[in-house]
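TL;DR need structure tokens for one chain.
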Amino acid sequence: TSWKTTHFHIADGGTVSGAVSLSAIYGFSENDIWAVGEKIYTNPNPPPNFRDSSLIIHYDGNEWSEIVIQKQRMLQAISKQSYFPLWVGGPYGSAYFYDGAVWHQDSNNNDFWFASFARDFTEQYAVAYNNKDTAGYYTSVHYLLMRQDNEWKVIDSFTEIPGFKPTFGHLSIVNIDGEMYSAGYGIFQKEENGWTRTIPNKTFISIFGTSRRNIFAIGIHGTV
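>> reply
TL;DR here they are.
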């Protein structure tokens, strides 16, 4: 009936300390909820004066606790799927997966900035991005990735240059009731020969649903 503060931070009576912020959340049940974000620390070798590091917290139905991990950079994405592995990721190739018992740091060192994760039956997918220096100015390159042989491999990409055409949703990817959808410059649905854009001319940030008849997407300028 109403929203209540969960008091995860030590300043509010919780257990998580430090300067932190959260970016994404997903729950398997009311007693098993995960959230990711960043913890800010003072850089011993400035500049910059402050740096970000990975943060994963868990709610067991009673309180939030921080997961002890070998920290990479901030985390901004978490896979929304009701089965393991649970993937989380962020900039500079920062990524971890949870097998239901232990968190593992992704060993693939690359420059992918992970935006979203989803699993299509036996295949693990992700959408990621990076900024490339092209003739003195930066352009955004977006990647559709598949996990193969313990590595993320590019299966499609597009670059934001004049006249570009997006071939998949680059900001959010999800499996809803056995169908794969992605969101970005439109809403896309995965077909046998690629992705079909079903809603063009709008920018969407995230998509999620509980069935093929109950899907929501949100975007810029209040688009729902």
